[in-house]
User: Fold this.
Amino acid sequence: MNQKRTYSLDVNINTGCQLRCEYCFEDELLKVNNQPTDEILYNLFEKYDQFLNSDYFNSRFKDIKYYFWGGEPTINHHCIKTFLSRYHNYNNVNFLCYTNGYNIEKLKDVILRNSIPKNNRQERMGIQVSFDGPILQDISRRDAKGVSTTKRVLDTINWLTDNNICFSINSVVPYKGLDKIYESYLFAKDLYLDLSSRNKNLRYSQYTPKFDFRSFVDLSKEGMNDLLELIKEQCYKIIPHDLEFQKKYNRPFFGWFSNYKKALCSAGESFHGMDYDGKVYKCHGAFYSENKQDHFISDITDDNYINKIIDSMNLHLKNNNKLMEPQVCKNCFVPVCYRCHIMKYDYSKKEGYFNKWNDDDNQKHLCKLYYQIGLINYAFRELS
Assistant:
């Protein structure tokens, strides 16, 4: 019998943001705080109550997880409070709030009530803070006035830590910060050792920075080779430090050295995204795609909404090879690899929706990048 899964819905509750991260793909949307109306929220609650009570949901899923997405979601703190209040007595509804950590002041009371495990129950709302470390933060994650955000975000991280809040940290390596990976690793390791000694509920256990991969697309062959050489140089400097960490804690701290399985995305199959205007797509990545309309499923106000998302999920279960390793990747030894369906679709030259959706090898620059990381990963594990 197949194990029941979590159904996930990203909800774009605010498009605006206080930061102007250089690698952010939301661009002009960040300047305006577009938010769901009361009518949209009412329809969402009504429709997902129906979904929770449906035979389809109970045959496939164990719970629902709402992800508060933006922009910066915490700006719309009233919406977050509305969700938590609405589902106060639901044991099968949980939340995760993404945040840049710039200003959570008006949510601290909610976080204290909902983001700490109680009575043998997991936290109702997890927190994920986007923080690249001081060096990279000051390069690419300044506020709208160009001012450093490092101190404010670290203040937030320390408050979360001192209150035993369940939170994690997500980091990005911008293209022009690739020569700072080693220094950023050293900071992240020291930060982790400090936080973990003070917070028993910490969900941050590894430094696994993601790439600003859109910057790599148009690189020449020589430019890509230089980039790969730089990444190798930075990682080789990290190896002795992480071997020491592994010897003490029986695992690497640098996520690129872990023995992961390749990431397989559940978009369309058990994961959708609702934009601020109530339109629902295969995932939040579709909000920003040039082919956005191709990924549209339904409007939350549609009376037939539940049937449409169920039909869409069944179509993905039938046509999507997500649950199987794509043929092109089966013989690849690389353990860390992120394959985004929306990006594959946007880059694909094939015909037909699912041929584009599952066009796994159409981003050669990503294959080269992760192949290099795979070689370094192999070297680390041979030494450990």
About this structure: The mean pLDDT is 92.
